[in-house]
Design goal:
CATH class: Alpha Beta
Oligomer: single chain
CATH superfamily: P-loop containing nucleotide triphosphate hydrolases
Bound molecules: adenosine-5'-triphosphate, magnesium ion
Shape: globular
Number of helices: 6
Order of helices and strands: EHEHHEHEHEH
Strand content: 15-25%
Number of strands: 5
Strand order of the largest sheet: 2-3-4-1-5
Distance between the termini: 60 Å
Structural class: alpha/beta
């Protein structure tokens, strides 16, 4: 397993900096000369649909996992469509022990069976967490703190 084949899971409540953390990680990877791809979970649904017509998903995934770091942001905020669940599983499986994935979620991965079919969730999470660091964010929402301190809001005149 190469240096780039470990995963990262950032989970915790809304507004606690998960996407911010993934953006910073992606930026650092780019600065270190690596390539980075960024998806939301629904982008993965669109990815599956785009390649379904001509059955090119396997080739498209093989191309995609040449990227050093693949980030999937905001899992669990919205219900996961069957296409997105399929895309997420396919990506995790294709990247398994080959490429690094970073995912951010409001749910701990052990709860992914609440948002996607249980068998698919189990197989996905099993691979995702086999070689993974888990970062749990906590505390109050940065958004709420900024909103209540009036940052970036000017008084209405
Ligand atoms: N460490 C930090 N220092 C300063 N600002 C931060 C920090 N972490 C996050 N923020 C800011 O707080 C806001 C919310 O952060 P972010 O979008 O990363 O939260 P999130 O955990 O992804 O939330 P959600 O689950 O709703 O997607 C953003 O404007 C972000 O720039
Ligand atoms: Mg987020």
């Amino acid at each position: 397993m190469g240096r780039a084949a470990g995963n990262l899971c950032v989970c915790g409540p809304s507004g606690t900096g998960k996407s911010h953390f993934c953006e910073a990680l992606g930026q650092a990877a780019v600065e270190a000369g690596m390539t980075v791809a960024w998806f939301t979970i629904e982008d993965l649904g669109a990815f599956v649909r785009r390649h379904r017509a001509d059955d090119s998903i396997t080739r498209a995934l093989a191309r995609l996992i040449r990227t050093d770091l693949i980030i999937v942001d905001d899992i669990g905020l919205l219900p996961v469509s069957p296409d997105a669940a399929e895309g997420f599983y396919r990506l995790v499986d294709a990247a398994y022990e080959r490429r690094s994935l970073a995912v951010s979620s409001n749910l701990h991965p052990s709860g992914f069976d609440e948002i996607m079919p249980k068998t698919l969730a189990t197989a996905t999470v099993d691979r995702l967490l086999h070689h993974a660091h888990i970062v749990v964010t906590q505390g109050d929402s940065y958004r709420l703190a900024q909103a209540t301190s009036g940052k970036r809001v000017s008084p209405l005149t």
